[in-house]
Predict the 3D structure of the following.
Amino acid sequence: MKNKIFLTLTIIAGLLIQMSCTTETPTDLTKTSFIPKPVKITATGNEFELTKSTVIFVQDETQQSGEYLSNELNGIAGLKPEVKTTDKEPGKGIYISISEGENNLGEEGYELTIDKKLIRISANNSAGCFNGIQTLLQTLPVKANSDEELKIATGVIHDFPEYGFRGAMLDVARHFFDVEDVKRYIDFLAAYKMNVLHLHLSDDQGWRIEIKSWPNLTTYGGSTEVGGGEGGFYTHEQYAEIVNYALERNITIIPEIDLPGHTNAALASYAELNCDGKATELYTGTEVGFSTLCTDKEITYKFIDDVVRELAELSPGPYIHIGGDESHVTPMEDYIPFINRTQEIVVSHGKKVIGWDEIANASLVENATVQFWADVKNTTMGVEQGAKVIMSPAKKAYMDMQYDSTSTFGLHWAAYIEVDEGYSWNPATYVTGITKENILGIEAPLWSETVSEMDHIEYLVFPRLPGYAEIGWSAPATRNWGEYKLRLAHHGKRFDALDINFYRSALVPWE
Ligand code: TNX
C-alpha cells in the first residue's frame, strides 16, 4: 500500500515536472509579453535555439546593429556571437539587413522573422534594425546561466510606431545625475524603443552643462542643488559621451536651457545678467517662478547666443529646447519679444525650437514645437500658428507625480498617477481640437525636486515608463489596460534582473 502511494506520488511529481518544462518552452510567439505591443505577430509554432555557435550576419550598413546585439547577448548569457559580413542571406544564424523593395515599415519599423534555423531582422535603416533587436531581446530572459537553453518561439513580427517622437525627460538641474546614471536611464528608454531623451540642463538650483565662454555658469552655478548637496555638471567631453551613447541606441538628446525664468543659477554666476547688476544668491529650495533674465539688456542676448552656439555644436540632433515656462516675474510685454529673439538665435545656429506651451504667446518661428504640459489655451494658440505639439500632460505623463498619497518620492500638484492612469489615455484625443496631425509624439518628464539617487528615479519611472513607450508606439485601438497589465506583470522579472527599484503597484498581478 505504502509502495503504491509512493509510486503514484512519484508519477504525479514526474508529470508536474514535465508540465512545468513544457510551459517553459515558448512555442507560441503571440504569447510573448512584448512592450510596446507590436502591430502584428504571427506564430508558426516551432523553436529557434540560440547557442554558443550562433553567428550574427550583417551587411556593411548593419554592422553596428550586429555589434550591439552581440554585446547584449553577451550580457544575457555570456554568448558573444561572432559578427560576420555577408552579401546574401545565410542558411542559419541571425541575419540583420536593410530591406529591399516597397514596404510600409517607414523610418523606424522592422520585420522580425524567426524560423527554426534563421532569425531575420530587416528594416529600411539602422533605426528600424535597432527596434527589431529590442523586440528580439524581449523573447529572451534578461539574465541566463551559460548552460541554460535559450529557445525562441518561431513566427513573424511586422511592426512600426504610431508616433515618430517617443521620449522621456530627466531634470538634472534640481538634482545632478552623473554620466553613468544618465546612461542607465538611456538604457531604460532604449529597451522600450523610445527615441528621445530631453535633458533639463539648467534651472534655478543649478547649471549643468559646461559653456566655455561663460565658465562660472558651471564652476559656481553648478556647485549646488536642491537641499544644498554638491551638484555637478557635464564637461563638453562628458556631454559628447552621453550624446554618442544615446545615438548608438537610436536616441536623440534634446538639450534644454530654461529661459528667461528658471535662471537663478545663471543670475548668481554673472552679475551682469541681472537688471540691477547684482548677482543673486545660489538657491537650493524648490519654489518656482521667481527668477528672470534681464530682457532689455543687450548682454542677455550675447549670453544666449554663446550658450546656444556651444550647445548646437555639441548636438547632432535637430532641436534646442528654450524652456519658457513659469516665467512669473517676466511681464508678458517683455516675455514675448524675448522669446521671439531667442527663437531667432536658435534658428541662426541651424536648430529647431522647442519650448513649453507658454512660448505660444510669442510669434512662433517656422518648425517650432510646443510642449503641452498644462495649458490648453497656450497649446491651441501654438497649433493655430502652425506649430507641432509634444504631448506631456502633467496629469497623465509626469513621472514625478506620486502614484498615491503613500508614495515615498514625488509631488502631487497635478495629480496622483497610478500605473493604470498613466497608461490609459490617448494623446490624439486628450485635448479637444488637437489631433494626431498636430502631434509629433509623447514625452514623459521626470522633474527631480524629490529625487537625488538613481534608486529614487527608478521608483518613479518604473513601472510607468513602459506604458508611455507603448502609448507612443502602439495604436490606441490596440491598447487596453486589462491586457497590458498582464504583459507588464511579466516585465517585473526583467526589472528585478536589472536590479531596478520599481514600485510594485497593487494594480499589477506581478509574476
Ligand atoms: C512644473 S512643468 C515645472 C517644473 C517643476 C514641475 C514639478 C514645467 C514646465 N515646469 O519647473 O519641476 O512642475 O512637477
Q: What stands out?
A: The pocket of TNX is lined by residues 288, 325-326, 356, 373, 398, 400, 411, 447, 449 (CB under 6 Å). Confidence is low (pLDDT under 50) at residues 15-23. Residues 318 and 351 are 5 Å apart (CA to CA). The chain has two domains: 23-159, 165-497.
